[in-house]
Specification:
The complex is a heterodimer. By secondary structure, chain A is of the alpha/beta class. Chain A has helices at about 1-10, 20-30, 45-55, 85-90, 105, 125-135, 150-160, 170-175, 200, 225-245, 250-265, 280-290, and strands spanning about 35-40, 60-65, 70, 85, 115-120, 145, 165-170, 180, 185, 195, 210-220, 250. In chain B, helix 1 (about 1-70) crosses helix 12 (about 285-315), helix 3 (about 90-125) runs antiparallel to helix 9 (about 225-240) and helix 6 (about 170-195) runs antiparallel to helix 9. The chains are: A alpha/beta, B mainly alpha.
Chain lengths: ~290, ~325
């Protein structure tokens, strides 16, 4: 996004893009160090307090949807019919730490093979969303897995490890389709197994791992012309660019609505500091339209 | 009489000016000398001061860590998950990862480095030595990140052909690569030590009818033991402190195991992994870096002291 904007501005504006997890990003954002913050989950209560303490006011705009994707090695053939959220919980809950180490321990019909786990580090919004959606409580996870904020590391790990299982945003799966297998997700026991895809996110059936992606803009920074230009450029070109980075774009009217929110400088969050698991695109738009 | 006095007075005056002159030169020279001494002292002292400052900061920040975590837990718990809900602060998994990778590295570097050194010092013709040495030194110059990807993308897949069950991240591959990386450290220091062995010893061996190989192994090598041991210790410290290769290729998962076929994290890999995310200052995760760093410093220190003792024990005087 920043790259495209710089090209459109012919180098007149330079956008510096820093990388950290959503948590680390919010810490910088609430210290007034950054103007715009990407987030793979809504702002938390703690972060709202931090921002308030530093006098940072912000505008929250949903920009896309993502399918958090559970991946396994291509040679894995026992998850072709999906994995249930309950099984994911048994694998990832803190109590599994050091105890659940083979596939057979999770489900007796699975092979007696070492279970090797890969996931984002504790600083990441993906980590927080996934733990809340599967284990039931944000940040509640076992710690004995290969944790990296660099999704390429996770791709490397799972693609080379027959007993590997990992999770990250859809984009990294889409780029590495040949080396990984995405696992269909069964939300409620006895329910249908739904694979992650743009369609299943759009029609709201890929649950509970569909999640909205946001940007947060420092309200004071928005007074600077280059920042407001950047955000407007973002909203006008979002459908194309969001697709390019393999997220699911919101309907056009959502971006138009965002522009209105920007124009009216509507401050604060619509989530009250809490994440909402299982939100669909339609529900998100209804929530936003209340403004 | 006056005549006599005058020259004497003149002489005395002349002498005085001369002494004053000498004193003047003397003083400026002394000041310069002092200045140079002070600069030299500061240079030498900066290294000491830096070391002391590092240790002080490590200890100070670790104290905060040990207020929350008991030393016993730290040293005996076999799980290391400081950033997660079920937090454990056992350093053992990181220590085992560090020791195993370093051991694999040494089992590669010591034989290869030693054989290289013996060959270069005792057998190689001048031309060969002058060609091989720069290449060996070039190995030292390769950035360690490059070695990391070399381990991950080339060595690990090759090893997986031999051991199909080897996970994508493991300690064997980075261990081997670190071993290759430290060959020049081991070989060049050992070679210098062997070349320093007096020619007379070799000539005596030849005179007794020993072959070149017998001379190299039974006379030169034992005579050079103190230097060779120093080379090994240098290699150990280098292997323990290596960060990027293990961070890239070993998997960054704290895992209490002595099996090199498993994935694991080393102390250095943990530090670099956690320091990359932005931990809030003063949090337990932040402090854990310092505690881990302290253990690392102590480990290297232990090996340096050991090296010093061994060197003294094996020193040969000629």
């Amino acid at each position: 996004m920043a790259e495209d904007f710089q090209k459109a501005e012919r180098g007149r504006v330079r956008v510096t893009v820093g990388i950290s997890g959503t948590g680390g990003g919010f810490r910088k954002f609430c210290r007034n160090e950054t103007d715009v913050q990407n987030a793979s989950r809504p702002i938390t209560k703690g972060e709202m307090a931090e921002c308030a303490k530093a006098g940072v006011q912000y505008i929250e705009l949903p920009v896309a949807f993502d399918a958090l994707t559970v991946v396994v090695n291509p040679s894995n053939n026992w998850l072709d019919n999906g994995i249930s959220v309950a099984e994911l919980r048994r694998i990832w809950e803190p109590g599994a730490q050091g105890k659940i180490t083979t596939w057979k321990q999770v489900n007796p019909s699975w092979p007696d093979m070492p279970l090797r786990l890969y996931g984002p580090g504790a600083d990441s919004g993906t980590f927080e969303y996934f733990t809340e959606a599967t284990v039931g409580k944000a940040r509640s996870s076992r710690g004995d897995y290969t944790a990296s904020e660099d999704d390429n590391v996770l791709v490397q790990g799972v693609s080379r490890d027959k007993g590997g299982l990992g999770y990250f945003g859809f984009a990294y799966y889409a780029e590495n389709r040949g080396r990984l297998k995405a696992v269909p997700i069964i939300w409620k026991d006895g329910g249908k197994a739904v694979p992650p895809s743009i369609e299943t996110v759009e029609n709201g059936t890929y649950q509970p791992l569909s999640r909205p992606i946001f940007i947060y803009i420092n309200a004071k920074s928005l007074e600077r012309p280059e920042v407001s230009q950047f955000v407007e450029y973002y909203m006008k070109n979002a459908p194309r660019l969001v697709k390019e980075v393999k997220y699911v774009p919101l309907p056009e009217r959502a971006y138009a609505h965002n522009l209105q929110v920007l124009a009216r400088r509507v401050l604060g969050t619509r989530f009250g500091g809490e994440n909402r698991v299982g939100l669909t695109i339609d529900e998100l738009i209804k929530l936003e339209a209340k403004l | 009489m006056t005549h006599g006095i005058a020259p004497a007075g003149l002489e005395a005056a002349g002498l005085r000016t001369q002494t004053r002159l000498v004193q003047g030169v003397d003083r400026s020279r002394r000041v310069r000398e002092r200045l140079i001494e002070a600069v030299l002292f500061l240079c030498a002292f900066s290294a000491v001061a830096t070391t002391v400052a590092i240790v002080v900061i490590l200890v100070y920040e670790s104290l905060g860590f040990f207020e929350t975590v008991s030393v016993v837990d730290f040293l005996t718990d076999t799980q290391w998950t400081p950033l997660f809900e079920d937090a454990h602060y056992g350093i053992l998994p990181l220590v085992s990862g560090t020791v195993v990778t370093a051991a694999v590295a040494l089992s590669v570097a010591v034989p290869l480095g030693l054989v290289t050194a013996i060959y270069l010092s005792e057998f190689a013709p001048h031309r060969v030595r002058e060609t091989v040495k720069p290449f060996l030194e070039l190995l030292e110059g390769v950035p360690t990140v490059v070695y990391g990807y070399f381990a991950l993308l080339l060595v690990t897949p090759l090893l997986q052909r031999v051991f199909p069950d080897l996970p994508g991240f493991n300690m064997l591959s980075p261990g081997i690569v670190i071993g290759i990386m430290i060959i020049p450290y081991v070989s060049s220091v050992s070679e210098d030590a062997m070349r320093a062995v007096p020619m007379a010893l070799r000539e005596a061996a030849y005179a007794m009818g020993a072959t070149r190989f017998q001379t190299a192994v039974t006379v030169v090598l034992p005579a050079a033991t103190s230097g060779v041991v120093a080379a090994f210790i240098l290699g150990v410290s280098r292997a323990i402190g290596e960060t990027m290769v293990v961070a890239v290729a070993a998997g960054q998962q704290p895992n209490f195991t002595w099996n090199p076929m498993e994935s694991a994290a080393t102390i250095t890999a943990y530090i670099v992994q956690v320091a990359l995310g932005d931990l809030p200052h003063g949090s337990i995760g932040y402090q854990s870096i310092f505690a881990a760093g302290l253990v690392l410093v102590l480990m290297t220190l232990l090996f340096n002291v050991l090296g010093h003792l061994l060197r003294r024990r094996f020193r040969e005087r000629y």
